[in-house]
Structure formats: C-alpha cells, structure tokens
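User: Modeling request: complex.
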Amino acid sequence: MHDFELMRSLHKKNDTKIVLLVMDGLGGLPIEPGGPTELEAANTPNLDRMAAAGTLGQTIPVRRGITPGSGPAHLGLFGYDPVEFEVGRGVLEATGIGMTVSKGHVAVRGNFCTVDAEGKIIDRRAGRIPSDEAIPIVNKLQEIEIEGVDVDVRPVREYRFAAVMSGKGLSANIEDTDPQQTGVAPLPARALDSESEACAGYFNQWITAAREKLQSQPKANALTLRGFSTDPGLPQFPEIFGLRAGCIAVYPMYRGVSKLVGMELIEFEGETPEQEFRVASQRWNDYDFFFIHIKKTDSKGEDGNFEGKVKIIESVDAALPQLMDLNPDVVVVTGDHSTPARLRSHSWHPVPALLWAPETARADAEKTFGERACGRGGLGTIPATTLMPLMMAHANRLDKFGA
Amino acid sequence: MHDFELMRSLHKKNDTKIVLLVMDGLGGLPIEPGGPTELEAANTPNLDRMAAAGTLGQTIPVRRGITPGSGPAHLGLFGYDPVEFEVGRGVLEATGIGMTVSKGHVAVRGNFCTVDAEGKIIDRRAGRIPSDEAIPIVNKLQEIEIEGVDVDVRPVREYRFAAVMSGKGLSANIEDTDPQQTGVAPLPARALDSESEACAGYFNQWITAAREKLQSQPKANALTLRGFSTDPGLPQFPEIFGLRAGCIAVYPMYRGVSKLVGMELIEFEGETPEQEFRVASQRWNDYDFFFIHIKKTDSKGEDGNFEGKVKIIESVDAALPQLMDLNPDVVVVTGDHSTPARLRSHSWHPVPALLWAPETARADAEKTFGERACGRGGLGTIPATTLMPLMMAHANRLDKFGA
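Assistant: Request completed. Predicted assembly structure:
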C-alpha cells in the first residue's frame, strides 16, 4: 500500500490547526571549523523555547547526498517523494505565476539573454534587467501567433518569463535551448522522442518569431527556454490528508508547487514574516493547514551572506509570537533544504526540524534550535516526506491502523 | 526511479579524490557492561581528530537485525542493496582469486575435509592444512576431465579452493554438499530446479573423480562444495558513479566483490596498513575513488581477541597520516559490519562511521571515533548504501536534483 493510501484511509476530521513554517534553505554550515552555523549563531529565544518544549530532528529532503532544487524539496515537505513525483521546472514556474497548465499543455521557463552580432550569448541573464523593463518585452512576445497552437507568455521576475503552449498532440520531452554557457548560440528546441517533435517544431517557429521581436532590444535581444514539461497530475493534498490547506508564500515557485498539490493560494500584500503571519491570523478559520514560506534565508545563503541569513532567521523568530498567539495545535519549523552561506548554493546536508505540539510532542534533551541539537534530537534523521504524517498524528487527525 | 538511476543522471566530473577505508568487522561490544568497545578502547588520536572535524554516524549493513556475510556487507558499502543484488559465495570466492566467472559459468567454493573409513566427516577443514600442502592437491583435481564441461580448480587459502564449471546449459540452483556437521558424509550435489539438474550431475561426476584422487591423502581425503552460483551481472560501479575506482585489498573475497562491481584490482605486495596506504599514494593519480580494506580487525574479532582488535585499530590510526598527507577530499572510515570480540563472530550491530570532508562536512558535537559517539553523530543511523551518495556529494560530484 502506498503511504498516501494509508493517509487516505486513516485521516479523520478535527478542528485542530497545523502550521508548516518553512525557512527556505535553513540548514547551514559553520564558516570556521568548530564555529556555529547560521541557525546556531542566530539569537532565537522563541524558537529555542519551542525547541525545548518540542522534539528536534533532521530531515533528508530527497535522498542522502542529493541536493534538491526548490520544487522537489517542497514536494518532499508536502509528503510527496520527489523521486516518485517529478514535476518539470516549466510547470512549476508557470503555475507559480497563476498560469494554468492542464493536461496536454506544455510549459517552459524562459530567460532573456544578450547575444552578440553573431548570435552568441554574451550574458545569460540579459544584464538581469528589472521586471518593469521586462514586462513590455514579454508583451511583445505575447503578440506572436503560431498556426495550430496558442502560446501564452507571462513575465515572472526580472529576466525570467514563462510560456505555456496549448494545442493538440503536444508532448514535452524536449531538450533545453539554454546551452548553460556564454560564447555559443542558444540551441534549437530538440525533441527527445517522436511524440514531442510537433511541439518542438512549434516552439522553434515561436523562437524565430521572438528573435525578430527582440532584435532591437539593447539587452534582452534573445532568449533561452528550459524545463519543457506538462501537468504531472499529482494526487491532491487536501484529499490525501483531509485538510483544507492554504499557502502563504510570495515567490512564484513555492506558490506553483502548492497549487500543483491542490493547496489554495492565499493572496496578500507584503513579504516580511510579520506580514505573512498576519495573513495567517486573518485567514485562521478558513484552513486546517497553513504552509508559510520564508524565502530570504535561502537568498542570503546563496549570496554567501552568513550574517544576512542570521538576521533573517532572527526576524522570523521575532515575529513568531504573533503566530503562536493564534494557538496552533502543531507547528513544524524547518527548511526545504540547506543553503549554507559557506557554499553559496543549495546543498545535500540534512535540514534542522522542530516539531512543536504542546499536548503530544515528546520533549528530548535539546533546548535550542540548531544543527547540532537537531542531529541529537528525538525525531532522529528522517525523510522529509514523513513530516506530514507526523503533523497529522500530533494534530489528532489520524485513526489507529488496525484494531 | 532506482537510486542508481539518480546517481547516473546526477554524477558529474571533478578531480576530487574519495577514500573509503574499511576496517573489516569494525563495530564491537564492551567486554564488561559499561566498558569500552574495541574502537573506544583503542588510542586513536588521528581518527579522533578526523571525528572532531567530520560527521559521525552509524550504518546498517543490510537491514536492522541482519548479520551480513562479507560479500553482502561490502556490496552495501559500494552502494548496492545486498537484498536486491545477491551474489553467490562461489562467485565471490572464484572472482577474488582472479578466476573469470562469466554468464553461464557456475562457480563454487570448496573445502577439503577429512573423512573416516566409512566416509563420514571427522574434520570439516582437513586439519586446516596450510596453503603449500593444499596446492599440489588442488593440482591433482585440476587433472579431472568430465565430458561436456570444463572444470577449473584453484587454491584459495589453506583448506579452501574454488571451482568454476563452464559448458552449455549450466544453471546454479544447487544445494551445498557441505552437511555443516561432522559424523555424516558429504552430501551429493542436488539440483533445486530442473534447469540445474545437468549441472548437478556434472558436479557429482566430478566429486566422484575427486574422491579417487584424494583417497590417499592423510588429511584432505574428501571435499565439500558450497555456494553454487553464477555471474550476477551487477551494474558497474564506475558507470553508476562516474568514478575510476581502485581496490586495495589483500584477501580474495574483498578483491572478488570489488571486481564484480567493476573496480580495478590494484596489485601490490604487503598487507599492513602502511603498505596499503603506500599503494594508494603510488597510484593516487590513477583513480578517483580508493577502496582500502583492512582485514585483521575482523580476524581478531572472530578470534575473540579484544586486545588484538584494539591493536589493529591502533595500527591503522598510526598509519593514517600517510594517507591524509595525500590530501584526499573525502574520507569515510567505517566497517562492513560488526565483529565484536565478545561474540567471536559477525553481528548485526550498527557500524561506526566517520565522514571527513574538510570543506563540506557539518561537524557535530562528537570529538572521538567510537560506537557511543557515532550513535549520537550528525549523520544519524543510516543504511550503508547511502554512504556512496554522501561521499559523491561531499566530493562535489553530483548535480542538483530538479530546479
């Protein structure tokens, strides 16, 4: 029996509230041997109080040694084994900005780039043009018409956009056109199987038309496409777990993966932890489960900014009382993966996790929220996919298995 | 997707060096309740320094509670789930002494034994006759001719030999002829399915001929056969992980399993840790991955010699600087299983493991290499098969999974 079947057969109604608070890329590394990680260095009295009362552990996002992208890492937190349930980048990106990717649609992520007179890429991100420069350029691409298909194009952020092609007989097994280096021209869309040849052909027509529209641009005079993909038809989170689930996230990727699993995307203004927690308080009665996503821990990690990451963690901690005043029944605080400032990138290291549930969490000996303490914590080192069943159990939302 | 597929799709080139240092049967038990294990009793300043800088953990060789033989235990360390990938003892033994076991060949491990006038076994190991007594006896067996097949016989060590039968229509599902007790005669080779009947028949002809050749021997006047098996066709390690892999091991079993997974067997003289580490330094540029096997920790454990095992561990520690001076990027020190001197045998206990990688290992709070510290270590208690992906990650040889 698949673990989802177990959940479907055991979940029961309750009025308990669960919060999954994800600080993106939370896990870190010391800068100096023997020194603290970002989370250990941060002054987090509220998280430490929760750590003392709750149970600590470490999660493995995908498999040991595997560095996950954001999409797979979040699927894991939502209970979906990301090796079993693969979702393409194009679908994630498009869904995340509110585009619909239905069965038979093919979504792709686009980057504007700068090419020289010979058509060779000199800047893979078109000088990171700001969003307000990119929007009118995307609007020009929107005008392109290809016979036999519709291509919807929308800006994502800065030099990035998403495109969704709809029509008949489309298939998405197509290689990226991004050569992943400068000094060479963007590649054509190349089908990897015969079913995808028609779709690749349409995309190549579209690319040709797009190059004409872009040629007068000073920076964004060309584009590359990555992550051709279609709706993966994921089993739906509310049905698996019997939870009305709301997503409080700012960035498209996280909203995208939440939508794909069937969570409701909560619309709001702002992006600070206080603002996100306030949204939770405003919508507290509408959902059983809140996924709250904090992006900037990851961004600071990717910038190699140890102190910056520490400060973001501290800002989350400072805002926490507002969330805890709502009297949630179960709170998990964790990351989707590690992004040590020392490495300036996502990594494979286990992710610190804190399970707080005042009625049922079995306290371990650990009193602070940090990597070393989590490594000794009572949850052990567990697959990220097991957090959902644990939260369900602590929320008294699972029946006994067998008599 | 099989985890090997994940490795195949994610591995990338780098010039980093990985060392897997296996002290056979490393895990132990205290002699007195509350006392130290062999590893804890050993004075290991170099390993302790690596433990403080690195991350500790415990590995489960096969499954919790399962005591592994050497073959499965090493397959696990190489990343192969030994329950999924079964390799027969005959194949391991034959491959380990340089014999070729191809598809359709049937290999078997032989023991000389001593039988009385009635043909009943009185010594299952023929008085443990030394290798130089056994070699001429094996040469006699080499003369045997059976119509329809070839049988190649080679000495292994002391009373042990290996035989490989080649011919048409051979199948290896055949019961051991070793009754595993004295006072009874060796059993005939009995096929367990109809496909194996021809092969069992050939082996029984060969046994009859062998008994004639052996009847004048004072000790080795009979034989038993165990582990009938054929080439398992394992996926190849260098291809799965993208590593040029070299095996530095003295004993046939470990060389055998290394060869089966596609490692190169490095030829050398000597068997001390210093000698093995010197080989690594001599061949440092030829490989990305070195498997270095220390046998005597296991032998001392099987002898019930606690102090002897302690001394072997200390001799490895003393030689370690020679290895570390090569500046490897990732070193794992572990065992293939536990062999507590107290039990005088392999056991199912978790195996201490130390992961050292100066750039990326996340130090835990543990400062010494021993069972108790490993049980609290930051790696957690993990399947032995996950060490390979971890080593690959720390050697920066894996791409990100998903975007």
